[in-house]
Specification:
178 residues, two-stranded antiparallel ribbon, alpha+beta, 7-stranded mixed β-sheet, globular
Length: 178
Amino acid sequence: MLVPRQSVPALTVETLDNGTFDLSGDGADFATLVVFYRGLHCPICATYLKELGRLSEDFAAKGVKTIAISSDDQDRARKMADKVAQPGLRFGYGLPLTVARDWGLFISTSRGTTSIGIEEPALFSEPGVFLVKPDGTLYFASVQTMPFVRPHFQEMVGALDFVQKNDYPARGEYTGAV
């Protein structure tokens, strides 16, 4: 289990247009927002990533870099990027499922063709949203078991004002006896 204020697992993937992404060297001023999505087959992911792309400049203004990552191959990732049509959003692809599991993501098996007529991969990770500080420690995490009910990016942008103004610490760090 990932724990706030503790280091997250290593994360390195290829991106469509920005070379190799290595979280440890991303260089965000405040944090990197890592959004793991299910893949091209997920229509909810496309809508969700459009919102992320639309708000990427707002995140950047607060010192937060954004990236969307899936286990899809390059071709499927490119099709999703084209569908989302947000040129400012980085897309990473080829996430190994072992790394997805290290991040605490749930893994699902294919149920065939989706409602939009795209075949699901044999295995893929479910969504997760992580805000990682430049020192590699976890600030915020939300992990889902299915595509529904994800954190709203607009709320996150607004929360960053309070967080930064008040130097609000990452919460959920206690791992002792209860």
